[in-house]
Amino acid sequence: MKVLIVTGGSKPNDKLLLQKYEEAELVIAADSGCNVLYENALMPNIILGDFDSVDKNILEEIKKSKIEVKVYNPEKDYTDTELAVYKAIELGARQITMLGATGSRLDHVMANIGLLNLLLDKGIKASIIDSNNEIFIINKDTVLQGVFGQTFSLQAYEGVVKNLTIKNAKYELKDYDLKVGSPLTVSNEFLHGNVEINFESGKLIVFYTQD
Questions:
Q1: Boundaries of each Thiamin pyrophosphokinase thiamin-binding domain copy (predicted)?
Q2: pTM of the model
Q3: Where are the domains of the chain?
Q4: Who is most buried in 1, 136, 158, 189, counting CB within 10 A?
Q5: Are 28 and 84 in contact (CB under 8 A)?
Q6: Per-residue pLDDT tens digits for 46-72
Q7: Given pLDDT bands bounded at 50, 70 and 90, which one contains residue 160?
Q8: Does domain 2-131 have CATH number 3.20.20.370?
Q9: pLDDT (tens digit per residue) in 69-123
Q10: Mean pLDDT of the 29-54 span
Q11: Radius of gyration, alpha carbons of the chain
Q12: Which CATH number among 1.10.10.10, 1.10.3720.10, 2.60.120.320, 3.90.920.10 corresponds to the domain 137-209?
């Protein structure tokens, strides 16, 4: 099942929101994600969170639709986005897209990337997408698809990525041990065709980016 989670960071542009909404089989709004969907005349299947950032009039209008509502205490051990992810897992999600999971709160952005890692470990395909970025994590050899001149970046996650090789990109690499925080693999580009990413062990955060 494809699940879309709309949460309370940077608002996606209308085109992106509608595209991902139409692709999803289930839509979960976390906290002020309710505002984003309502303002675009889109209805979630489930809303959850402490609702401290939701327009109260919008919340009451959504509740009239008799969808599933789960209210949590603001003083809790989980972020609203995390609760939405756990709900998606509970319902059998095999693919999760998160919108509104980036923004000015870098602590939340880092936590949301951590949720990508949690989902990877559970075998669930997951990504964070906004108007300028798509972010996901890989733990095995992967073929990246893109168009000529498109920018992508890689970052080691959790530890060293052993024997990293990048083929068919503007900047190629062979058998390199990439450490966490290394800027070496930032701002690469697609040429003609797919890019091959191979490595012996570790995890890589993949960023598709545009200005």
A1: 146-205
A2: 0.94
A3: 2-131, 137-209
A4: 136
A5: yes
A6: 999 988 888 889 988 898 888 999 999
A7: very high
A8: no
A9: 999 988 888 999 999 999 999 999 999 999 999 999 999 999 999 999 999 999 9
A10: 94
A11: 18
A12: 2.60.120.320
Q: Do 21 and 45 meet the contact criterion of CB atoms below 8 Å apart?
A: no
* Residues constituting the chain: 211
